[in-house]
Model the fold of this input.
Amino acid sequence: MVRQAKESLYSRILADMRRQVLGGHWAPGMQLSKETELAERYGVPRMTMNKVLTQLAREGFLVRRKRSGTFIAQPRGQSAVMEITDIEQEVAQLGLPYRWKLISLEQRSLSAAEVSLLNMPAGDAGGSILFLKGLHLAREEPFCLEMRAIHLIVVPQAAAQDFAMLVPGQWLLRTMPFSAASHRVRAINATGRDAKALDIESGTACLEILRRTMSGKNWVTYVRLLYPGEFHQLVADFAPRPGSP
Done:
């Protein structure tokens, strides 16, 4: 009976915290109270509260960061094939200091080569576009090269942002929640300017991630992320479908 009571309380806390997030009472990015304070508030041992928070993080409701705390996760499009991660968090998980370095930023039309690199359909390449390049650094060494186009008709406030100080992807996730996202992932060999920016030899194997996010029928951003192969891996958890071997 005691075990059932504990399980029932655990389930009720899970359900209550899910309601707080789904009902909009806890906004994306909001930091929760300390684990000990939440345990006291709900009247449970800290171990039970830790179990609840761990489960909610697995479900994507929360983000837990060492030394920083627990935060309400940013919204994610249900059609996204893979999670849109924060590169700063990727670096932090390796225990390394992070820095963003803006290489260039221009409001202009894109060249045919840039459109091809971003995997943009011809119909999306026109209009007002903010185009930028930057480098994500880990321990002051190149970790990921970013090329990004932002649709200024959909996100006009982007033109006034200082992306030398703000990480574009982080700012967009906070400012412009997306309704859908698509990814294309492939292995390539870095050459030319890409290899030079990443400070690697030409021909070095890299992982390229091409992403498009949408807001309704309009595209928000196209981004190309290029990681030296030794610095990045893709991880996916899945369960078999009914009837699969």
Observations:
- The chain has seven helices and eight strands.
